[in-house]
Design brief:
Blueprint: H1 2-6, H2 31-39, H3 53-59
Helix pairs in contact: 2-3
């Protein structure tokens, strides 16, 4: 669907599934933290997360 709508260069190379995404108390998805966890970078402040175990699941994907 991405290829037909946006073109081949924007198609994902791989899609990974996890049980949950790291979210704040306001139910905002922490995209920066997802990227940092996947790339093995410093996560920063995780005190606002409702579900910090979701970050650990992302870390082991790579």
């Amino acid at each position: 669907m991405v290829v037909s709508e946006m073109g081949k260069p924007l198609a994902p190379k791989e899609i990974l599934f996890v049980n949950d995404l790291p979210k704040t108390r306001n139910a905002k998805v922490m995209r920066r933290m997802i990227r940092s966890a996947y790339l093995g970078l410093e996560l920063g402040d995780t005190s606002s997360l409702v579900n910090p175990q979701a970050v650990e699941e992302i870390k082991v994907l790579k």
